[in-house]
Design a protein that fits this description.
This protein folds into two domains: 109 residues, FAD/NAD(P)-binding domain; 324 residues, 3-Layer(bba) Sandwich (FAD/NAD(P)-binding domain). The protein has 13 helices and 16 strands. It has a five-stranded mixed β-sheet, covered by helices on one side. Helix 4 packs across helix 10 and helix 11 packs antiparallel against helix 12. The longest helix has 20 residues. The two termini are 40 Å apart. It binds flavin-adenine dinucleotide. Flavin-adenine dinucleotide binds next to helix 2, helix 5 and helix 10.
Length: 448
């Protein structure tokens, strides 16, 4: 089984809220799809939202069959949490807010026990083995691996922003490698800022996520005078915006999250983590502020994980199916990993054999310098201005430049993307996605 330290480097390990699935008696896949599209601010690929909502209950059942124990109530029914943007209770969780840990530990155990799976723990992918026309495998620091099909699952890029809830490795390596190999990227300007990350500047705990499930159970957001100022259960982009506005009005770098009415037993690890950071959530509200959390964009794929480069698939946060539109609905991403991951695995197995691979390409991935993360947060944060985005076009890291290039191209504010010069939404861009090939020039596409 993988060492816990390896699992801790993934976002999946840290997932707190859970997986969204229409399981409750008052719920349906249609309602789940509608909530997804509404949160995505009319930029979702509807067919992806519908597939996710339809297949989500089955993946929850499959995970249970494979030994993931989701939390159940006294009657033995799955406990369903309420999160922002959901019109029904539909988020299954495990170990309170320890969902990601439970799932990754169990799946790592299963992978270790499967003799046909070779795990190269600790190896890093440095490039895709591509001649620009087809992917033939991957080049890792441990050597090249030829493959009939390659599936990228390298996670997202939210840690490119200095203030983030993500582990440091979430720097979009998969997207950079895919693009260098010839694959298209999409929606790179769409980064979700989570409204409630701990504000403890200068400490390791700065950016620690406080799951939105606590707001579903009654935690409230308070301003400097101790007053509520927003609907805590609105979608993330709306809550983030009202927090930023209140912070501006008060000239402070945070607002407060009041957890005092909550049962500690429901969120033991949230309370423990906050106490570990020096706060006393049972006695005082804790300081929170938005932080980069999830990148909706990534390697453009169809609904089976196929990229534009034959032989290359992408799944999870590194992929962009268009499902999340301009604002991911809470707890839809773990569900997406399993729904789209299952689909991609089946499709990848059907790929034809391509014979012997071409010569190894010369290009290798270089991680961004620390200055890039500071620059991306400063110049392409929750509120964006043309001149700041233009400054980011000079950054040494290709993905930082592409985020700026895409953000300049989207001359509107929608969901998590806010342009100071263009505060309104452009209805002409409903359902449209920015896509670029290896030349880095974004163009608008409509995805059905
Ligand atoms: C704190 C936190 C809480 C969250 N809570 C929830 C939640 O409750 N519900 C929900 O739906 N979503 C949640 N999310 C989002 C969700 O966890 C992620 O979108 C999802 O887990 C991404 O899974 P993944 O497999 O694509 O990537 P990851 O789980 O991040 O895995 C990617 C792996 O690839 C590795 N990797 C990267 N580059 C390379 C390389 N070059 N070579 C080799 N390996 C590489 C990484 O180290 C990592 O181990 C949360 C995210 C965070 C950070």
């Amino acid at each position: 089984m993988a060492h816990e330290q390896t699992l801790r480097e993934s976002s999946s390990f840290w997932a707190q809220g859970g997986l969204a699935a229409a399981i409750g008696p008052d719920d349906s896949p249609e309602l789940h799809a509608e909530d997804t599209v509404a949160a995505g601010r009319d930029a979702c690929r509807r067919s992806a939202a519908e597939a996710l909502a339809r297949e989500a209950p089955e993946v929850v059942g499959e995970l249970e069959r494979r030994g993931v124990d989701f939390d159940r109530d006294a009657d033995g029914n799955l406990e369903l949490a309420l999160e922002g943007g959901h019109s029904r209770r539909r988020v299954v969780h495990a170990g309170g807010a320890g969902t990601g840990k439970r799932i990754t530990e169990r799946l790592a155990q299963l992978a270790a026990a499967e003799t046909r799976v070779h795990v190269a723990e600790g190896a890093s992918a440095l490039a895709l083995w591509s001649d620009g026309a087809r992917c033939h495998g991957v080049i890792a620091d441990s050597g090249p691996v030829a493959a009939r099909t390659t599936v990228l699952a390298t996670g997202g890029a939210a840690a490119l922003w200095a203030r983030t809830t993500n582990p440091w490795g979430a720097i979009g390596a998969g997207a950079v490698m895919a693009n260098a190999a010839g694959a298209e990227l999409a929606d790179l300007e769409l980064c979700q800022f989570h409204p409630t990350a701990l504000a403890a500047p200068g400490t390791d705990a700065d950016g620690l996520l406080v799951t939105e499930a606590v707001r579903g159970e009654g935690a409230t957001l308070l301003d400097a005078s101790g007053q509520r100022f927003t609907d805590e259960l609105a979608p993330r982009d709306a809550v983030t915006l009202s927090i930023l506005e209140r912070m501006d009005q008060e000239g402070r770098d945070h607002v407060s999250l009041d957890l005092r009415g909550l049962e500690r037993e429901r969120f033991p690890n949230v309370f423990e983590a906050l106490e570990g950071a020096g706060f006393q959530p049972e006695r005082d509200p804790v300081p929170v502020a938005p932080a980069s959390h999830y990148v909706m964009g990534g390697v453009a794929t169809d609904l089976e994980g196929r990229t534009s480069l034959p032989g290359l698939f992408a799944v999870g946060e590194t992929a962009c199916t268009g499902l999340h539109g301009a604002n991911r609905l809470a707890s839809n991403s773990l569900t997406e990993c399993f729904v789209l991951g299952t689909r991609a695995a089946a499709a990848a197995l059907r790929e034809p054999d391509q014979g012997s691979p071409p010569e190894l390409p010369k290009w290798r991935f270089t991680p961004p310098p620390a200055s890039t993360r500071a620059a991306v947060w400063r110049l392409a944060g929750p509120r964006r201005r043309a001149e700041e985005l233009e400054a980011l076009l000079e950054d040494p890291y290709p993905l930082a430049r592409l985020v700026a290039r895409f953000a300049l191209e989207r001359r509107e504010s929608r969901g998590s993307h806010r342009r100071v010069e263009f505060p309104g939404r452009d209805p002409g861009l409903d359902g449209r996605h920015l896509v670029c090939g290896p030349d880095g020039e974004p163009a608008w596409h409509a995805w059905g």
